Each structure stands twice: as structure tokens, then as C-alpha cells.
Amino acid sequence: MINLLDKFDKFIAREIERRSKQIRFYKNRIEVIKEWKIKVLELTLSKNGKVVGISIENANRDKLEKAIENADKVMKYLSPIPLEIGVDENYINKKTFDKNVLDNEKLLSKAEEAINYALEKGKETAGTLYGIVEKIKIWNSEGIEQSDRNSMAYLSIRVFKENSSAHEVSCSRKLEKIDEKVGRYAGELANMTKEAKKVKEGTYDVVLSPLAFSNLISYFSSFSSAFAVDAGFSFLKNKMGKKVANECISIRDSGIERDGIFSRKFDDEGVATRETSIVENGILKNYLHNSTTAKKYGVKTTGNAGIISPVSWNTLVMPGDYNKEEVIDEINGLIITNLWYTRFHNYMTGDFSTVARDIAFYAKNGEILHAVKGIRISDNLERILKNIVALSKEVKQIYWWETENPVFCPYAMVRNARITTA
């Protein structure tokens, strides 16, 4: 590589090679098989306190030299911003790797089995199965030179029966751990009741499935980034050491989780990833930091770079004391299986609304009386977290386009959630 220190004071170079395969199915048939290959070189260059970021696809020496020349030219037009590059080589690389996530025959077999399980109870199904392998190399001006490799697979399946639909996912770093039987579970949900009724607006006790609860926790994870706090996109500002959730809630970030599909050996600076406690027994303990935000706060980086904004890896909600059935049997209110279109009206206060997608139920003493339709949670995220009174022992890894970073998530019971109707 060109010696970047000839022109710049600091640098980080990341080379990412990624192969992805997608199996897409709808109307009970596999219809699309796609494959992508990318190779990208990402450069972060700093000179006289000014920083430029560059991304080069299929980089060669000519492309690199031109990009460096252009970066050097535009430096004079930029305002200074801080950039710190941490060093922590205590790498913990216990995560699993599986090259089979790109095996066409095995991917097709998994997808077909998921469809067949779904049709045991459902009438029609659609979804996707992805397999991804990536290799990452990193160099920086602090002398770090490391490499990493990662694999991930995730299945997302929706099942339809008459006017009902249900959604389930399965995620793992290993293809063999993708549970095709989630198709059957989604089919069973979609088949549970034929008639959906409206309910009155008001406050209800609510059970959130892992799929639904993970949606809210994914947002909470992004709010725990020190950059989000500083930028005014988090209700966690000035809450350090204060209660932000019920005491039954403990939330951690982990870049070292063995089967966490976003686990990484190092962050975007080259700093070793780790496990960080964000909330412990309801008390906010830490923000997520890169080296730049850590210096501003007078703490150590948590290994969550993002060069500009610290990012979460895998979010872990610690399990509770109840079996899943016990959480559901306690409910006099609503059971919500999925959420989407979550929108925050005020990031600084945590006010949001979200739609209950797919089938939801009204239950009394744990007995499901009928399905419900047209409901929305219109509430405050901190209030929701403080009103959680029970978590299941069962925890499931959730990742799909409404849960943008993986969340290991239990079932949760929330008291007095504010429900509005369409």
C-alpha cells in the first residue's frame, strides 16, 4: 500500500470483501436466486485536524493515487473536526464461522423446508433467505494491521391465511442453525383466529413478542451512541447513572457474541470489540463510544467505532425469570407479534408511534378471545421500558429490515401501554 503518512497525519484503511446470496420466494415458490460480490477500500484521512473519508470500489494503484490526490486538495476547504484512533489489541475472536452460508444447494433446501413448514397451517408464504461471508482487513497510522472474517445467515418469512398474516425470522452465523420450522410457527399464528375486531383507544397491558420488542430495543441501542446523545437524537442525554427502565431490565452491547451475526474482531478503528453494559437493573451505565467521543467524555472507547458515530454490534437484553407461557398467561390485554413503521416524533424525549403489523390478539387471563386490527402504540420509549414488569427466559436473536442491528430479545410484558387505532 502507498505510505499514507507521507501526506497525512493519521489514517485508517479498511478493505472489505463481501459475497452475498439471496433466495427469494413468494406465492409458495422460490422465484429468485441472486449473488453479489463487492470489494471496497475505505479510507479515513486526517491532516492538520481536518478529516476526509473516501470509498473506492475495486481499488487499484491508479484509483488509490487519484483518490489520495483529490483528498489532499479538498482538505483546505474543510473545517477541523477531532479524530482519535485508539489502540486495544486484546482481541477476542470466539465467534463461529461457516462457509456453508453460501452453499446454493443448502440454501435452497432451507428455503424449501421453510415453505413446506409454513404451508402446514398457512395458505401462502413469502420471504427471503440470505447468506453472507465477508473478509475485512484494517491498517492504521497507530501500527495496527489485522484481518477478520465473518459469516451470517438469516431467514425472514411471512405466512398468510385468509385475512391474517404472521411473520417470523431466524438468524445465525451458521446455516445449519437457521430454524426452518419458524415457517410452521408463523403459519400457526396466522391460522389462530379468522375474525379480527377493533378495540377502543386507551391503555392496555401488552405482551410484545421478541420480533416486536426487538424493534424498540434496536432504536434504544442507537440512542445509546454518544454521537446520538451529542447530536440531539437521544432521550438518554444527561441520564447517566439514572433510572431509564424497570429494574428487571439489563441491556448490553456485544461485539464478541459467539453466534451474534454482527460480532466483529475489531471496530472501524481497529480497536478490539468487547461486551459493554448499557443498562444494568434499569440504570444507565454507559454510552457506546469510539475513541473520539471517549476522549470528549473522559472515558475509554467501548470498541464501537463507527468513525463518526459509534454503532452497536449485537444488543443483548438479559433474560427474565418467566417461561414464555407464563408471560402470556398473565396478560389481560393485547399480544402483539410484530411492529413496523416505528417513527419518533421527538428524539430528545423518546416520543414515538409504531404500527402493529401482522396478527395481534386480545386476551383475558391468558386466553386469546379474538384477533385485533388497526392498532398502534403511541407512547414514550422510556415510559415503555419503565413499565416492563416481566421478561421471558427464552431469548431469540432477531434481525430484519425493521430491526437494523441484531437483538437477542425475550418476550416482554408492558403495563399500561398507550394504544391508538387507525
**What are the segments in which pLDDT stays under 50 over at least 5 consecutive residues?**
none
The radius of gyration computed from the alpha-carbon positions, rounded to a whole number of angstroms, is: 23 Å
Helix content: 10-25%
- The number of helical elements comes to 8
Count of domain modules: 2
Q: Estimate the mean pLDDT confidence.
A: 96
N to C succession of SSEs: EEEHHEEEHEEHHEEEHEHEEEEEEHEE
By DSSP, the count of extended strands is: 20
Measured distance between first and last alpha carbons:
58 Å
Q: What is the structural class? A: alpha+beta
Which sheet architecture does the biggest sheet show?
14 strands, mixed
Strand content: 35-45%
Shape: globular
Description:
By secondary structure, this protein is of the alpha+beta class. The chain has two domains: 4-190, PmbA/TldD superfamily (PmbA/TldD fold, 2-Layer Sandwich), CATH 3.30.2290; 196-421, no CATH class. The protein has eight helices and 20 strands. The protein has helices at residues 61-74, 104-118, 182-190, 210-223, 226-231, 291-297, 324-329, 381-386; strands at residues 10-26, 29-47, 50-57, 124-140, 145-161, 164-172, 196-197, 202-208, 251-254, 275-280, 283-284, 314-317, 333-336, 339-346, 351-356, 360-364, 367-372, 375-380, 388-400, 403-421. The strands form two sheets. Strands 7, 8, 9, 10, 11, 12, 13, 14, 15, 16, 17, 18, 19 and 20 form a 14-stranded mixed β-sheet that branches. Helix 2 (104-118) packs parallel to helix 3. The N and C termini lie far apart (58 Å).
